[in-house]
Amino acid sequence: MTFFAYQDSESFYGEPEPAPGEHVQFVPEKLFAHRQRGTEHPLERRLHRDEGLVVHEVATDVLAWPSSLWRVDDLEKPIRLRPGNRWMRCRAFTVVEQAPAWLIAGPHGDAVEWVITQARMLTDAQVDALASLPDEGESSLTRALWAGWTRKHRGSGSPVGCGLTTLNEAVTEAAHQRGPRLFGRDEQDEVEVLSDPAWLRASHAAHAAALGLGAPELLTPQENAVLTRRWITVFGIPDLPER
User: Fold this and answer.
1) 13: which of 1, 30, 98, 194 fits an S-S bond (Cβ 3.0–4.6 Å)?
2) How far is CA 42 from each of CA 12, 45, 46, 86, rounded to the nearest angstrom?
3) Is the pTM of this model over 0.90?
4) Is 226 in the same domain as 115?
5) What is residue 84's DSSP assignment?
């Protein structure tokens, strides 16, 4: 069983759109139209042998939080570009069923999704409350968690898939709603970055909570309680199924 992550109709190069039981086929014309957008010059309308619909064997390998996630089977002409890749391209597949999108953050991805949802709606008052709470070992435990993960996984990926990247985007989105005063310029990379000290502390609390709730097996329950303490103090305990 493999997974297909649906983002939006603009970046979907197949038809029909995924639904249980549908046989979805790759449509080259949709790919050509996507490539043509944003350029005035005509592009070559030729397929390479490895092009098609991208499917993943492991949901946590999905690189961006999808609008929907589907279990698919019966792959047509699957091509794995490298032997070790856990993703493939294919010319068609059959949709088996819809899966919760939060699976891309792992078996506890619903908890990561909860943190992301709260982060996307952060207010100045909540940020001040998070920033005023003492760290009490949160930072050192976060480093320990990452060190353990890196040793076991050779530095690849994240304990919660693309959840932390999505969380960064959520915090930045919330900060942008408060105004440009919260941002500064990173001269080395020449990009705008969040620089307000209180918002940075709130962002660190969000990351710690996402790791503690989303990958509880990496630390002890007592250590996870430290990681999640600031976030849960402000937002309460998420109402999620016990596992």
Assistant:
1) 30
2) 21, 9, 12, 34
3) yes
4) yes
5) T
